[in-house]
Design brief:
3-stranded antiparallel beta sheet, about 425 residues, about 40% helix, 3 domains, Enolase-like, domain 1, alpha+beta
């Protein structure tokens, strides 16, 4: 429920434009497009980071070597007082006003979480009209179940913030994706998520990302699997990780990629994975399969393409294309046979059980796939803490020996490089 109209008849009073000059020095009526644009920019400026609060909206468990870990999805929000303070600073308390209309709507059927039966209850519905004199009027709707002790306050705050967002004030908060963090035994977040640079006031952005070219465009959208538009401000870590997952899907082929995506997140394409924990899991599984596929190509080159084609027919595969390898077990069987045919010098003189997650390679029992996963997770933490891209962090930690793009191509001989990069990340955290 929204209304957009010019509020005529009352001139604006003592508003402060973004250049710091008091509005009392300019004409009373916003008569030029330049002044309107200046005002809109001031309204759209993100809140001070100290005004941002976080709340847990969803919880879930992910597996780890030490057992299941409880994680929560956190969303950012600002208190209504932050909105009021911004309006007061731009227009003074007498330059704008808000009006509320409250209704009690009866006979809603509701089933509470965990309950087996539905109940009949009521809702508090609040309409808030925000008027900026001489500029515009917008309305917003808020609602809350009547049995909530703070129903009126919650609905009022929701309506006010929704009305403000129509002016651009606080609108950017709707573009922030929920960030998953670990929770303690009392379901409290172990760490507070860090806002991306584009969601910070200009004065609080890091120097490396201060320019508009260094962040996604505010209005950029991309299509996800179900055809809906997603704002391009999903965060650098997710965007880069998603790009890596899409690249790996191409490497391992259609059937293997589809198996991983369905198993991990029950989706058909990587763009549909919204949970960062699941996206990371898909990345690690696909990376492990990609190593197996690369070894398959090497073994085929040694054993011969004819031998590979014959083996595919013996296994009743649709073709000898990597796209028709249906699962990990088939990939493993192909590898074992071809590497044995290729001779004992294949893969450094050993016949490894390739392309399988958790396999100890010829490096003292250290699993390269696990090291890669640890490196990505630690680099992601440093990336968020330092407001730097994941690629930059990995490049610095590796000291140029590898990059985010080449990480998945490392072999067993590169375990030392990955371990050294992990040590460097620890030093970066301690110094930062």
């Amino acid at each position: 429920m929204q209304e957009n109209a010019v509020a005529n008849g009352t001139p604006p009073v003592s508003m402060a434009p973004t250049n710091g000059q008091p509005w009392s020095t300019v004409p009373a009526v916003l008569s030029t497009q330049e002044r309107v644009r200046e005002l809109v920019v001031a309204l759209e400026e993100p809140f001070d980071v100290n005004e941002i609060k976080w709340r847990v909206t969803n919880t879930g468990q992910v597996g780890s070597r030490n057992g299941p870990r409880l994680r929560g999805q956190m969303l950012a929000y600002a208190d209504p007082r932050a909105y009021t303070d911004r309006l007061n600073s731009l227009f003074t308390p007498s330059g704008w006003t808000r009006d509320y209309t409250v209704q009690l709507v009866q006979n809603f059927e509701r089933k509470e979480r965990g309950a087996t039966e539905r109940t009949i209850t009521a809702k508090i519905v609040v309409t808030c009209k925000v008027t900026i004199f001489g500029f515009a009027v917008h309305t917003g709707l808020g609602e809350e179940w009547a049995d909530n002790d703070n129903a009126g306050t919650a609905a009022e705050a929701q309506a006010f913030k929704r009305a403000c967002s129509c002016f651009g004030l606080g609108r950017y908060l709707y573009d922030l994706e929920g960030q998953w963090v670990d929770l303690d035994e009392k379901r409290r977040p172990v760490e507070t998520p860090r806002l991306p640079d584009w969601a910070r006031p200009k004065a609080q952005r890091s120097a490396a990302n201060a320019s508009p070219a260094s962040r996604p465009a505010a209005n950029a959208t991309q299509k996800i699997g179900n055809g809906t538009a997603k704002n391009g401000r999903g965060g650098l870590y997710r965007d880069e990780l998603l790009g890596q997952v899409k690249g790996l899907c191409g490497t391992v082929g259609f059937s293997l990629a589809r198996t991983v995506l369905r198993t991990v997140a029950n989706v058909e394409v990587p763009e549909e994975i919204r949970d960062m924990a699941k996206l990371t899991m898909a990345f690690e599984k696909l990376q492990d399969l990609a190593r197996g596929v690369q070894r398959l190509h090497a073994a085929t080159a040694k054993a011969g393409a004819q031998r590979y084609s014959t083996l595919c027919r013996e296994l009743n595969l649709a073709s000898d294309s990597v796209d028709d390898i249906p699962d990990r077990a088939t990939l493993r069987q192909l590898l074992q046979t071809l590497e044995w045919d290729a001779g004992p010098d294949q893969n450094g003189g050993t016949h490894e059980q390739g392309g399988t997650e958790g396999t100890a390679h010829g490096n003292g029992g250290i699993d390269l796939g696990e090291l890669r996963g640890r490196l990505l997770r630690e680099a992601a933490r440093v990336s968020g803490a330092m407001n730097r891209t994941l690629g930059d962090v990995i490049q610095q930690a590796a000291k140029g020996s590898f990059s985010l793009a080449t990480l998945r191509t490392l072999g067993d001989a590169d375990v030392g490089k990955v371990e050294a990069a992990l040590s460097e990340l620890e030093c970066m955290v301690a110094a930062g």
